[in-house]
C-alpha cells in the first residue's frame, strides 16, 4: 500500500494524487527493470522511524487544553528542535517542544487521530543501506 499526504479525510487533492502516481510508477519501473535482469548498485536512503505518539495537552478531566501551534501546522517531516513552538493553549500560551534531540513530526493534527489521543507522531531520521541487487 501507498499512503501519501497529508490531506484531510474525504478530500481529493491533485498535488497529492500526482505524488501517489509518481511513487507507484517508480515502484512498477523498479519491478520491470528487476525482472529484466538489471543490476542495482548498493544505495543508502534516508527514512523516518516512528519513535512515539504524542497526545494533546489535557486537563485532569481528559479534555484538550491546547491546539497545534500555527508554526507546526502543515510541517510534517520538517525538523522540530528543542524550544520550537509545539502547542498553543486556549489562553494563548505557547508550549514549546522539550526534547534532547531533533525529531520529525508527522500526522500533525490529523482529524482521524483525535479519537486516538494523538496530536502527532515523533519520528527520527535514519539511513538505511540496500545491498547490491542482481
UniProtKB/TrEMBL annotation:
Molecular function per GO: hydrolase activity, acting on carbon-nitrogen (but not peptide) bonds, in linear amides
InterPro entries: AspA/AstE_fam, Aste_AspA_hybrid_dom
Domain AstE/AspA barrel-sandwich hybrid: start-end pairs: 44-125
CC per GO annotation: cytosol
SUPFAM superfamilies: Zn-dependent exopeptidases
Pfam families: AstE_AspA_hybrid
Superkingdom of origin organism: Eukaryota
PANTHER family: ASPARTOACYLASE
Record protein name field: ACY2 Aspartoacylase
Lineage: Eukaryota, Metazoa, Chordata, Craniata, Vertebrata
Name of the gene encoding the protein in the UniProt record: Aspa_0
Amino acid at each position: 500500500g501507498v499512503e501519501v499526504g497529508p490531506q484531510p479525510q474525504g478530500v481529493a487533492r491533485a498535488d497529492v494524487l500526482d505524488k501517489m502516481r509518481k511513487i507507484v510508477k517508480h515502484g512498477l519501473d523498479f519491478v520491470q527493470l528487476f525482472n529484466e535482469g538489471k543490476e542495482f548498485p548498493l544505495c543508502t536512503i534516508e527514512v523516518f522511524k516512528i519513535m512515539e505518539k504524542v497526545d494533546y495537552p489535557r486537563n485532569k478531566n481528559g479534555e484538550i487544553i491546547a491546539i497545534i501551534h500555527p508554526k507546526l501546522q502543515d510541517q510534517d517531516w520538517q525538523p522540530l528542535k528543542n524550544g520550537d513552538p509545539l502547542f498553543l493553549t486556549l489562553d494563548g500560551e505557547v508550549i514549546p517542544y522539550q526534547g534532547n534531540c531533533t525529531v520529525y513530526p508527522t500526522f500533525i493534527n490529523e482529524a482521524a487521530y483525535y479519537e486516538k489521543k494523538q496530536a502527532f507522531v515523533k519520528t527520527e531520521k535514519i539511513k538505511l543501506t540496500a545491498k547490491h541487487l542482481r
